[in-house]
Design a protein that fits this description.
heterotrimer; A alpha/beta (334); B mainly alpha (433); C mainly alpha (181); B: 433 residues; mainly alpha; 20 helices; 0% strand; globular; C: 181 residues; disordered C terminus; binds sodium ion; transmembrane helix (chain B); membrane (chain B); cell inner membrane (chain B); transmembrane (chain B)
């Protein structure tokens, strides 16, 4: 009989967190089926390990063999991990997958994670994330001055540069804080996940996204755990990760579309808004300045930024004459 | 099975009287090392870190600080005795005042450790000084200090919203009715019970130098400053000035301002208040850390899978399912805490309920009501430990265990009312499409 | 016996110092949160760094408070049997409990907590949020530090129990002063 291998996976999410949690379950099922039961994945959600943002450390130390999380959460530990989730004004999901698998993405990602005894793989995409829930309309840059917004990470830095005050509110108090105007705006994910938190009941303006055009989750694997697996199981694991990541992109599209239909029907107060051009231009400029600062601090970051910029330039030219041209045409005939 | 044996061991060892926190931690240590080896404890720093970064729990030291300052400056006593005087010759005035203050605090926090301990500091010494029965006093404090779990804002409701995929606002609105009914029943219970046993809650002695009108006037005047402080705490949340957690800091600073106004302020008072706060806070968090070690060993040795297996055996018809699932949650609440229940049990029950066409909002309120009870049920109800931790030595654990029973029964009564008459609370038991 | 008394007093001082630090952090935390609320509401000024400082201070309060509360007997006990027992029995409960529960628990958290903090130091970990605090290892190292002092406080329980057994001290004296802490 052949050996069976059980990999313990810790995920950032709670046990029945939709879409993200479905991805790990689908991944575990695929791996087990393809290996005819020789590969088992045991998933521990955040209620069990109690360390949603400790996945990196736990997998690094071998306390878990695998993790499911998002690369940009580790920016405080390893600044170069920022680039493998989604960047403001960056690539769309398809463009970014192309960068990962056909461009230099995968190679650069292993260069960042390798020194920490880790392998990282794309772990499923949310599609374009929404720009957030606002209680008042943003008509100009002035409206952003001193605006208190729950917006973490790099996008928060971009917002801060154009005058927003990023504010740290625990998730459990977000709803009350927004309802009572303790804060003015909240950035979360997209319709399917936002709907659960009830922001549509207390904020009328739902802004379109720019800061996370293609949020990619990640599978982390401890290298020692990986090396213990025979070649065929490694291939199965890789395939299962890739398929479940792709499935998440599809599921996100479906779930968000349905949730958006619900919001439109049940919450007519909600209006979709775009930031004015002046705001986008200021944020675009702020984003570029911040990237320059990051690049100046780390050669590896500079290399990744350049790779993404070059790839985006080339691939976007084609996106423009294919997808964008088609969507524009549709917009005209409808 | 390790998990089950561990519960038995913890229960026995708790009786020996070694500090609760370290009994949980120590028992976890033995069973953890026995079942999984030392390295299981490499998870502990992560679990402690998640308590450290849980800013909602910051309300615990902040509320305790407010309570200690109000107690040390005698303002709490003034508030409660004056409120008690308003009841004239009626017994139970202090207990009802405690419930009212508890309800106000409940509307500003959802952290049990914060409100039970603050209430214990504020009102237990006053009630005992006025010859209240120990059991009645501790029961009232634990019950009203736990109201924060059902009265919004509430952590239980937020977690259930997340687990069940319901908008938090809907849950908050739906919880107001049951919360108000519960508060009303607590008060009604005190009124009725004290008619039969007035000696358990003697009326405040009347001040014969004053007419009744003057007495009421003096009482109202004395109530205003400390009550205003509590209203400021609450108001700061409603006005959006502060989050619920932050509002407790306003309470602490406000209590110091009151102390200055009443010429009770000294740096020594503040330092001593800080010392009391640190000690009580440490007691609460040591229990949390001991309990997190305990639940870690429980789940990593397969306890959670065992529970899942049991739950899959629940019956399939509508009422059978509702009632049995409530009984299961109530019983589990004796042993494990609400977060574990929300994340382990609720995800198993909810698809079944959904398939039966149960109104999930109603179902969520039932669970929340039920989980509130889990803080109060002996032997592991944390609210009971917390109160014991701040109670004077003459109050024994057993007094607290016995004192809470009537209030647990009242909670079960409200739960039954929501099950049988959901329309009284503006809900239906079945989903309406 | 004389060296036991010396050790006992020395260990008690260690726990008290933890308590003083926690008290300072307690007052700073209340002021910090108060300042953040006022600054945000009245002046629309928000600092993530200061908001993170809140939980840094709060962590110091409850972590370093634990050894302090051990020395002052502030940790809650189930007293069904404990109050009925005499000094000697109480001393044995505390002696054995400290040796088999407190000290090993503290030892494990100290060892794994040290690795936890060290890893953070080696990575130069800081906050990932705009304007957040750097040097995350400092607050993480409060975990092994606390565990160390819980260990010394556990040892202190042992030395105190020995003094009680020798008839040099008794538990009532230290017990819940003023009904509180
Ligand atoms: Na987001
Ligand atoms: Na509440």
């Amino acid at each position: 009989a052949q050996d069976t291998y059980t990999l313990r996976l810790a995920e950032t999410w709670g046990p029945n967190f939709p879409i993200f949690g479905d991805t790990t379950k689908r991944f575990a099922k695929l791996a087990e089926e393809m290996s005819d039961g020789r590969l088992r994945i045991r998933i521990d959600s955040s209620n069990k390990h109690k360390a949603p943002f400790g996945i990196f450390d736990m997998v690094k130390a071998g306390q878990y063999d695998m993790g499911h999380s998002a690369s940009y959460y580790w920016k405080g530990k390893v600044p170069e991990t920022l680039f493998f989730t989604s960047m403001p004004f960056g690539m769309t999901a398809v463009e970014q997958y192309a960068w990962f698998y056909e461009g230099d993405g995968m190679k650069l990602m292993q260069e960042v994670y390798g020194p920490h005894n880790l392998l990282s793989f794309p772990g499923g995409n949310t599609g374009v994330q929404m720009g957030g829930w606002f209680r008042k309309e943003i008509k100009s840059l002035d409206d952003l001055q001193g605006l208190k917004m729950r917006i973490p990470g790099f996008a928060g830095e971009v917002f801060a540069k154009v005058g927003v005050s990023p504010t740290n509110i625990p998730p459990g108090e977000l709803y009350t804080a927004l309802e009572r105007n303790t804060i003015d705006a909240v950035e979360w994910v997209g319709p399917a996940l936002d709907l659960r938190l009830g922001f549509q009941q207390i904020a009328d303006y739902y802004y379109t996204g720019w800061h996370e055009p293609a949020t990619e989750l990640q599978f982390l694997i401890n290298k020692d755990s990986w090396n213990k697996l025979p070649k065929d199981l490694q291939a199965i694991l890789k395939t299962a990760m890739r398929v479940s990541a792709y499935d998440m992109l599809i599921q996100s599209q479906d779930a968000n579309a349905k949730a958006w239909a619900t919001i439109k029907e049940k919450y007519p107060n909600v209006q979709i808004k775009h930031f004015p051009d002046s705001v986008f231009k200021a944020m675009y400029k702020a984003n570029n300045e911040l990237l320059k600062e990051v690049a100046a601090k780390s050669d590896l970051a500079a290399k990744i930024i350049k790779s993404q910029e070059d790839y985006l330039k080339q691939t976007r030219a084609y996106t423009n004459i294919s997808e964008r041209a088609y969507l524009n045409t549709m917009a005209e005939v409808e | 099975m390790t998990g089950i044996v561990m519960f038995g061991a913890a229960l026995l060892l708790l009786m020996v009287g070694f500090p609760v926190a370290f009994t949980f931690g120590g028992v976890a240590l033995f069973f953890g090392i026995y079942a999984q080896g030392m390295d299981l404890f490499a998870f502990m720093p992560f679990r402690i870190m998640s308590v450290m970064q849980n800013k909602v729990l910051m309300a615990v030291p902040l509320f305790i600080f407010m309570g200690v300052v109000l107690q040390r400056t005698k303002l709490a006593e003034q508030l409660l005795t004056s409120m008690g005087r308003l009841f004239g010759g009626l017994p139970g005035g202090l207990a009802i005042s405690t419930i009212v203050v508890g309800a106000l605090l409940a509307a500003s926090t959802g952290v049990v450790g914060a409100s039970v301990v603050a209430m214990g500091l504020i009102s237990l010494p006053v009630m005992l000084a006025h010859k209240y029965d120990k059991r009645l006093s501790t029961g009232v404090i634990c019950a009203s200090g736990t109201l924060g779990q059902i009265v919004p804002p509430s952590i239980i409701l937020i977690i259930l919203g997340d687990v069940l995929g319901l908008p938090v606002g809907d849950l908050f609105r739906a919880a107001v009715g049951p919360g108000v009914v519960l508060i009303g029943l607590y008060i009604a219970y005190i009124l009725i019970m004290t008619r039969f046993k007035p000696e358990t809650a003697p009326a405040m002695p009347a001040d014969h130098s004053l007419s009744r009108k003057q007495e009421i006037g003096a009482a109202l005047l004395a109530i205003i400053p400390p009550l205003a402080l509590i209203v400021v705490v609450l108001g700061s949340i409603f006005a959006g000035i502060a989050t619920p957690t932050e509002s407790s800091a306003l309470g602490g600073v406000g209590a110091i301002v009151l102390a200055i106004i009443y010429r009770q302020f000294s740096f020594k008072m503040v330092w001593n208040a800080a010392k009391d706060t640190v000690s009580v806070t440490a007691m609460v968090f040591a229990i949390l850390i001991g309990a997190t070690a305990f639940s870690m060993v429980f789940s990593y040795t397969g306890g959670d899978y065992l529970l899942e297996d049991w739950l899959h055996m629940l019956p399939g018809d509508h009422w059978g399912f509702i009632i049995l699932s409530m009984v299961v949650i109530l019983i589990l609440g004796f042993f494990i805490d609400f977060v574990e229940i929300s994340f382990i049990i609720v995800p198993i029950l909810s698809p079944v309920a959904e398939a039966m066409g149960v109104n999930m909002l109603w179902f969520a309120i039932l669970i929340a009501m039920n989980l509130q009870t889990s803080f109060l049920t002996p032997p592991f109800g944390f609210a009971l430990f917390y109160l014991k931790g701040v109670a004077p030595p003459q109050v024994k654990t057993i007094d607290i265990y016995k004192g809470i029973i009537p209030f647990i029964l009242l909670q079960i009564l409200v739960l039954a009312m929501i099950i049988i008459f959901p329309e009284w609370f503006g809900m239906t038991d079945l989903a309406t499409y | 016996m004389r060296w036991i008394i010396k050790l006992d007093e020395w260990l008690a001082t260690a726990s008290k110092v933890c308590g003083w630090v926690a008290c300072g952090a307690m007052i700073l935390m209340a002021l910090n949160v108060f300042y953040d609320v006022v600054a945000r509401y009245a002046f629309n000024s928000v600092s993530i760094g200061l908001q993170e400082m809140e939980w840094h201070l709060y962590s110091v309060v409850f972590l370093l408070g634990i050894p302090y509360a051990l020395r002052t007997d502030g940790h809650v006990r189930v007293d069904v049997l404990y109050t009925k027992w005499g000094q000697k029995t109480k001393a044995w409960v505390n002696l054995v409990g400290a040796i088999i529960f407190v000290i090993p628990f503290a030892y494990l958290i100290a060892t794994y907590g040290y690795d936890f903090a060290l890893d953070s130091y080696n990575m130069g970990e800081g906050s990932g949020d705009p304007g957040g605090l750097p040097y995350r290892w400092i607050i993480k190292s409060v975990i092994p530090l606390t565990a160390f002092f819980i260990g010394t406080a556990g040892l202190n329980m042992v030395t105190f129990a020995i003094r009680v057994l020798a008839g040099d001290k008794s538990y009532e004296v230290e017990h819940s002063a003023e009904g509180l802490a």
